[in-house]
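#onboarding

Welcome to the new folks! Below is a worked example of what a typical request in this channel looks like: someone posts a single protein sequence, and someone else replies with the predicted structure as tokens. Don't worry about understanding the tokens yet, we'll cover that in week two.

Example request:
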Amino acid sequence: MPVNISELIPVLQMSVSPVVVISGVGLLLLTLTNRLGRVIDRSRQLVQQLATASEEEAAFLRDEIAVIVRRAGFIQRSVFFALLCVLMAALLVVTLFITALFRLQTAWLIGALFVGSMIALSISLVEFILDINQSLQALYIELRHRGAGRL
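Example response:
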């Protein structure tokens, strides 16, 4: 039995929320990839400075490089979970339409995809917060090194 267009309209309405999530997470991904680019650029600068640094300065540079490496890991995981969120949201939209077209009973799958998407987004945001905290650690190391006092 073919599906009537009036039966698909509620499916379209339900699909708006996951699409908004995809759009919002896209902006988060833009931010994260920009931060990753800065981390990469900064690590290259630090490694270059390390080649000609005195032993005292080299210790500070190594501390800062260690923070940069941790930040790169946080950003990498944040990007991964943000992309997982987008993937689950996209699969949710597809599942909604397939469910409507074939009149399937897949409420458990729809619920699981939505909850999984939100969990992935939450993990991504926690990793983002951890990256921000690490970037402040790098700032404190640099300020101590430049003689800005004890922080």
